């Protein structure tokens, strides 16, 4: 098989690109003028595959400004080169170049009747997340696919954080805490039973609808009761999430639970700070071998304003890396999608504030295990 080389297109390649476009497509062809514009756009990538000095295929990757998304707008392989794996190689090279400039997700569209391409993308790990009606010139529909392409390589700078997915809709806090504890003590069990035990200890009883979630006071106590050092950073005083319930009796329950948490914290060495936790302090904690568990608003992830707990695993110049314990299997997510999830530092700053008028910032930092301390009474499982 002839060796394939890749390079980015220049204006001298336009004649060959137009000729290949006309051979590969009858509709929705990219014009000479458009090829020129894409080549002149510094952000985008027009990747060429060459064999024996001849153009064998291309992939056009668009990089939208102010996002971490890349999109394969068009991909073409010369008819006589099909069946040699060149399409897959172009996708991989496109992903590599996009990841090199900090893009997190690669997206693409494919005709609903292009079964070969659909099978290729699914084999490469792409998942369908939508449909575009009447997308092509002939009024054909398109399926939308995406795949995460940027992954964090764990290093000795930060603790290695094992991943544990939550097993219920209401235990993101316990699952995140389990991951943090297992990162600083390798003998920490990661089991559903322990996840539910922590929820029983840390739940606020009521929150939004359904089962109550867990607050920072309860999670800090759960970590302390298991022998870990714990520090809680909470930007507001008083009962949290009170505004999420309308019933006065439920509000009173929230207040009593809060009073109980404060009483129990008073019997421990837990440091309680009524200040927001800065990203600089998060990074400092990680470098000291501690692992933060952060309350976020999921609006930046899925346009839902639900409080959600995640574990912070690492920080670099561009991203904050999270373990998100919620795996949406129905949407095609896998555990790999939610490990070391890179979030732009600016987006993380907005994400780590829950609520509109006086946003709540809450975090629990889990430190190494203490020696010689007994669990306090009244809160153990």
UniProtKB/TrEMBL annotation:
Entries under PROSITE patterns matching the protein: GNAT (PS51186)
Keyword DNA repair: no
A Pfam family: DUF3335
Domain N-acetyltransferase: 4-150
Signal sequence extent: none
Coiled-coil intervals, chain numbering: none
CDD domains reported for this sequence: NAT_SF
Keywords assigned by UniProt, alphabetized: Acyltransferase, Transferase
MF terms (GO), sorted A to Z: N-acetyltransferase activity
Gene3D superfamilies in alphabetical order: 3.40.630.30, Cysteine proteinases (3.90.70.10)
NCBIfam families: rimI
Identification of the protein by name: Ribosomal-protein-alanine acetyltransferase
